[in-house]
Design goal:
mainly beta, four-stranded antiparallel β-sheet
């Protein structure tokens, strides 16, 4: 029982040790008979939307429904074929950005993509960022529009307290002094696409005027901090790339897949570019580049995640795949040292969820081998089913960097084939099922650890842009940018 769609006997198991065996027998034509038994706990009846069943003389109870009715969080682990019950996490705070400044034409500043809590900062203080700025899809051809074409990607230092989000500092990204961006003709970079061909063609807010490209443009999605040199590292969807910046927003370097440096330089890029990443990452599906980024507390390793499976060997294969890539980089050497398979949830076990829309949105390191991973679907409100924070352990996972699997067959492997080939993916353990806590937003895009029992999450409200109406006018709504704090029972370590 992984989603609302199905009630599988093997998935829910039973309150006897013969549950899995009986479920297997049921597949061989044993009859399951529904029975209206009452379930009592401390003298009180536990309500469930499913009745117990009797199979071959044994009674089986829907464990997820029972566990959740008793205040437990229930996880079915597909890879290990196990069920884990934990204390239900609790929302301890909801804070909202209520007075965001206006950018243009009724569009207000927004976010948030990525979240960082720095060691030593107060518990209510975070860093977050906006992505490439307000954008939409115009007309039947879904032209990519940029209503604020000179928008500068930025970092916010925020305080989340007493139900509100206060911006303490805004850090806009820029090139070093003496360099001029190809689009703005100043040191300020934009959120516009970089290259003709692999990127979307940008249009103005009316969808009628084609805009120029910006080879230094960035679509920022994640933020991490390196204590060794006091710099931020940001993940970018466009190339995809990793961007190192100073505290004041000066871009130090942009790290791209091999083969991309020459293309960006030919287009007029002024950033210092280092092509150290595997070339295969250039095959990212449009708008599905690097999403999460985090640095281990000791400052030695950076991890970054691709948002969804890549177009290897083609887009159709990538969109059907469950196999995501997480790259590990040695920060001192500035080179990749690991690449690991993270298997996303199976969309077939949920209602109205497409596999291509099950993605990783952020990472937060607990130590050099263990990360928290934000995995989500694209649904919101009552329809949301995958808004989950997992603890992912890399210590025993197979390092696939530079292998034939990485370069040619990663995305097309089924779970059975992964096992047959002896590949060990990153292990997953559910920490918080955010959808079960009434979370209303689609884009759960930022994740940070506050203390051993508290995490914080933020949503991307897309600057309130909600497409275009039938007359071609941009629609702007009031979707809020919010930060939630959540308390978990087990210590995060």
């Amino acid at each position: 029982m992984l989603g609302k769609k199905k009630w599988l006997i093997a998935g829910v198991a039973a309150l006897t040790l013969t549950g899995v065996q009986a479920a297997g027998a049921a597949d061989n034509a044993l009859q399951a008979v529904t029975v209206p038994f009452k379930i009592l706990s401390d003298g009180k009846e536990v309500k469930s939307d499913k009745n117990p069943v009797v199979i071959d003389g044994s009674t089986y109870v829907p464990l997820r429904a029972l566990g959740e009715a008793l205040g437990k969080q229930v996880e079915w682990n597909e890879w290990t074929q196990s069920i884990r019950l934990k204390e239900q996490p609790q929302v301890t705070g909801i804070h909202e950005w209520k007075n965001a400044p206006e950018l243009t034409a009724g569009i207000k500043e927004g976010g948030f993509s990525g979240l960082l809590h720095m060691s030593g900062d107060p518990a209510d203080t975070f860093y977050t960022l906006a992505d490439r700025g307000p954008n939409g899809e115009f007309g039947k051809d879904k032209l990519r529009t940029f209503p604020d074409e000179t928008y500068v990607p930025r970092i916010y230092k925020i305080k989340a307290a007493n139900g509100t989000i206060e911006v303490l500092e805004t850090i806009k990204l820029h090139l070093p002094e003496g360099k001029a961006d190809a689009y703005t003709k100043t040191t300020a970079v934009t959120g516009l696409p970089n290259l003709e061909g692999p990127d979307e063609v940008p249009y103005d807010g009316t969808g009628t005027k084609k805009l120029g490209l910006d080879p230094d443009g960035l679509d920022l999605e994640g933020i991490a901090y390196s204590p060794s040199d006091d710099t931020f590292w940001l993940s970018d969807e466009y190339r995809p790339s990793l961007v190192q910046i100073k505290r004041d927003g000066t871009i130090i370097g942009r790290y791209v897949p091999q083969g991309m440096k020459e293309k960006l330089a030919a287009a007029g890029a002024q950033s210092e570019i280092y092509d150290i990443l595997p070339a295969v990452y250039s095959n990212r599906i449009s708008n599905r580049g690097f999403e999460g980024v985090t640095i281990s507390p000791d400052g030695k390793y950076l991890y970054t995640s691709i948002q969804s499976p890549m177009a290897v060997p083609d887009k159709k294969t990538g969109e059907a795949s469950r196999n995501l890539r997480i790259l590990k980089i040695d920060l001192a050497a500035k080179k990749p040292v690991g690449e690991y398979m993270y298997i996303a949830e199976n969309a077939a076990n949920f209602v109205k969820v497409n596999q291509k829309d099950v993605v990783i949105s952020d990472l937060s390191a607990l130590n050099s081998d263990v990360l928290l991973v934000d995995e989500r679907d694209k649904n919101a409100g009552d329809e949301a089913q995958i808004k989950r924070i997992y603890k992912a352990d890399f210590s025993k996972a197979t390092n696939l960097l530079g292998t034939e699997t990485s370069e040619k067959s990663w995305e097309k492997l089924t779970v059975a084939q992964v096992k047959e080939q002896g590949i060990v993916p990153v292990t997953k353990e559910l920490v918080v099922d955010v959808a079960k806590l009434g979370y209303p937003h689609e884009k759960l895009e930022g994740l940070a650890v506050v203390d051993p029992h508290t995490i914080a999450i933020v949503n991307d409200n897309d600057f309130g842009v909600d497409g275009y109406d039938d007359q071609g006018k941009l629609k702007v709504n009031q979707k809020p940018s919010q930060l939630y704090t959540i308390q978990v029972g087990e210590e995060l370590k």
